[in-house]
Amino acid sequence: MATVPVKNINGETVGSMELNDALFGIDVNEHAVHMAVVQYLANRRQGNKSSKTRAEVRGGGRKPWRQKGTGRARQGSIRSPQWTGGGVVFAPKPRDFSIKLNKKQKRLALKSVLTDKVKRDKLVVLDSFDLPEIKTKAVATVCEKLNTPDALFVLTGSNTNVILSARNIPGIKTAGTNTINVYDILRYDSLVVTKEAALEMQEVYA
Fold it and tell me: SS3 letters for 167-182?
């Protein structure tokens, strides 16, 4: 098992923690990671763009002029695509962009990115992280002492003050142990996890 130092909010090492190799010590599967990112980005797409075809535009039921004898090009409707106010050719319609990914593959991708953070020394374990009040400056100070200006903080559900304090800091994001995803772990340079959250993650995902 990999052993990582446990730090306090002042950046001082106060102990160590053994990480479960089933979650933090596997062989990194780049394909699984790639598919997890593709799925995450695809599932974020709204897919609600919509335009009207010539059949849906109001009006245009009468032929604008007779077929022959006017000297003008023949027209069947003032709502044809070539007319101003006409319908759109192959008009975009609402669609679902979501991609399905097997649970095992998603779990493999998550384990892969967590392992990569450990291998690159980008995983920081905190003994605890609680704030008595909502204060953005307090979280900014912690990030400065930990040298993690671009980080994802993984917390347990009881850290409401930390979550609210960190939401306005550029480059910092918070997530619960049940809401972490591969995309966010890759997007941020460092992964900061409380000891309690790390134990919870090992129970749930290992």
Answer: CCCCCEEEEECCCCCH
**DSSP character for 87?**
P
- What is the DSSP-derived secondary structure letter of residue 191? E
Distance, CA of 85 to CA of 58 (rounded, Å): 9
pLDDT at 100: 93
The CA-atom distances, in angstroms, between 9 and each of 38, 118, 129, 173, 174 are 35, 20, 7, 17, 16
Angle between helices 103-119 and 195-205 (to 10 degrees): 140
pTM of the model: 0.81
Q: Write down the residue that tokens 């003050």 correspond to.
A: 161
CB atoms within 10 A of CB 141: 13
Alpha helices in 26-102 (DSSP H): 30-43
Cβ–Cβ contacts within 10 Å for residue 151, how many? Answer: 23
